[in-house]
Write a structure and sequence with these properties.
Elements lengths: L5 E2 L7 E2 L9 E7 L5 E6 L6 E4 L5 E4 L7 E6 L5 E5 L9 E4 L5 E3 L10 E6 L5 E5 L4 E4 L15
Antiparallel strand pairs: 1-2, 3-4, 4-5, 5-6, 7-8, 8-9, 9-10, 11-12, 12-13
Length: 155
């Protein structure tokens, strides 16, 4: 059974974390936030949650809304959780954010060509880098998301 998440504490032995996945779930992406909570994306044929296990062992499901095959997850310096959505209905629904207050939103990037993202990394300044299934890496610009491209920048 590969439906498990393991931790290797410093100087310790491997420990199975007490997530409650069924035997067919596939843990996929993983991150540990500043509070030492473990967040995992789960692939499971239609029911594909993003689970959080707090440092004191309490499991919750993060409510991103429609996730459609989440593949990776990361947390920014403010505690906002970002997830990639492999089976998004459109280019604009493939990256989601859940803020510290539990409000879900789609991340409005100018780059609309990120199809089927499989990896995400958020840096300490809030910049986001995404890897798509073809191996293309995108550095996404949230700051100017509302600015339409000009004729000089279109190609």
């Amino acid at each position: 059974n590969n439906s498990r998440v393991l931790a290797l504490p410093p100087g310790g032995d491997q420990v199975k974390l007490p997530f409650t996945f069924d035997e067919f779930a596939q843990p996929w992406g993983i991150v540990v936030d500043a509070d030492n909570s473990v967040i995992v994306t789960v692939r499971h044929h239609g029911v594909e949650p993003i689970k959080k296990l707090s440092a004191d062992g309490v499991e919750t499901t993060l409510r991103f809304g429609k996730t459609g095959s989440p593949t990776d997850v990361d947390v920014d310096a403010d505690g906002n959780v970002y997830s990639t959505n492999f089976n998004a209905d459109s280019f604009t629904d493939n990256i989601a954010c859940l803020d510290r207050n539990g409000n879900a939103s789609r991340v409005p990037f100018r780059e609309l060509s990120v199809l089927r993202p499989i990896g995400i990394a958020v840096d300490h300044l809030g910049g986001i880098t995404v890897l798509d299934w073809l191996g293309v890496v995108y550095r996404l610009d949230k700051t100017n998301a509302a600015t339409p491209p000009t004729a000089a920048t279109q190609s």
